[in-house]
Amino acid sequence: MTASGHPTPAPGLLPADTTEDVRARRPTMAVLPIGSFEQHGAHLPLTTDTVIACTIAREVAAGRAVQLLPPLTVSCSHEHAAWPGTVSISARTLHAVVTDIADSLRKSGIGTLILVNGHGGNYVLRNVVQESAGSGVRMALFPGSADWDAARTRAGVQTSGHTDMHAGEAETSILLYAHPELVKEGYESADCVADDRKHLLTLGMSAYTESGVIGRPSLASARKGKELLAGLVEAFDEYAALLGAGTEAHD
Fold first, then answer.
1. Contact yes or no for 41/78 (Cβ under 8 A)
2. For the region Disordered, what residue ranges are annotated (predicted)?
3. What's this model's pTM, rounded to 2 decimal places?
4. Concatenated DSSP letters for 76-120?
């Protein structure tokens, strides 16, 4: 905790490359973490999705000849607007920012961009990837739902992806493993199951949860977090093979 009462920032989330590091690596692929700044109940920080996206991106980029980019930290969190602290940008803005980044990378010789998305509400990213065909930059969105499902099975996560929507077993587990200093006490009793969320986009999260949690964080563990990340790293191998992200050469 800092002197002002704010949680200490998680270490190692920003790339430390110099220009010469990138020049020596000669990457043809970039990895862009995309998070959010939104409520995650009382036990996880507003930056949860950004921390998770950065953690996944760092893991999948390790040992590969890619350029790891700094995260986009504010995105489309409108369904969480009822809680203080949440900040959003429009889907149009997120679309434009990601497209501009891809164009900039293309001009510097990088023709492939992987979007590592940490926030399920960023629906527009699917359209960005869809529209990238013929743009000069190949894109992919990672992790996909199948990647998460396989990682959940590997980790022994008990709740389904539908039940475990927000600040639940998976997200809490990843932070317990990778950044335990960010997890506050109380997650063991913060469960809220709301499987019937038919009108969530219209009514927002507050129609289905008072705490902001939808899921069962009481089932979280650092062991599950470790295995979730390992499963996602394994799933990325398919994307790397498809898009040509080779391993980094070492002298």
1. no
2. 1-21
3. 0.93
4. --GGGTTSTT-B---HHHHHHHHHHHHHHHHHTT--EEEEEE--T
